[in-house]
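Worked Example 4.2. Consider the chain below.
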Amino acid sequence: MTIHPAIAPGNIAVITGGANGIGLAAARRLAGMGLRVVVADRDREQLALARGALGEGHLAIETDVADPASVAALAAEVAVLGPVSVLMNNAGVGRGGDVLAPRAAWDRVLGVNLLGVLNGVQQFVPAMVEGDAPGLVINTGSKQGITQPPGDTAYNVSKAGVKALTEGLAHTLREKTGGRVTAHLLIPGFTYTGMIARHLPQQPPSAWTPDQVVDSMLEGIARGSFYLWCLDNETTREVDNKRVLWNALDIVEDRPALSRWHPDWKDAFASFLAE
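Applying the procedure from the previous section yields the following structure tokens:
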């Protein structure tokens, strides 16, 4: 089965946040399909492990995606190898905090999660557009960027920004390349990654593995989906859809912000979910 014309033996794939979790799972999968993979991450120890896991012919480059100069250096190093066919902007951090959290926490989360994606797009995508080969861009978002659960507003804002950025990128690429280069938004469910493992030493039964996310991601790309929606072992797609719809109806029906968590709307949301 052809997943995407850009996923072909010998082509180059660049994956940020590629030293562990979903990024490493994607790197292994693409390497297994014959692509030459470049993983970029700022964790030297994890990078060394990733380099060993991928084997000969693949690269691991220390990169801080929040630093435009660092991403520019990554792009320059990769350019020596040849044109990039697959770009996966996957690097991410969490725990930025609520609106009133310290500004430094916000800067860290927005710098990596949102501006890191923008840095990757601006360094690699222009060459994809200017070339004549198929291209694939995958940006990692989050369900939290869509349903906006209270608690970590900085993270929610960063991932909502990735959603808007990727939607705009998909439109631009459609206009400029006629579908030769495509962009997709990866939306994982609860996934047991290194970021989660720092707080939960053992994988919860409700979580998917990174490999399951990559399976779902590739299936979605093969279908031609833009929104690469992933499940987990706890929440069904029907429940996910209702949560998304409820949030949209907050605007349409002029309800309080985040009414799903509002005490006056708790019962109404429960009834909506049960329909």
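The chain has two domains: 12-234, 236-275. Strands lie at 12-16, 36-41, 59-62, 84-89, 135-140, 181-187, 227-229. Compare this with Example 4.1 before moving on.
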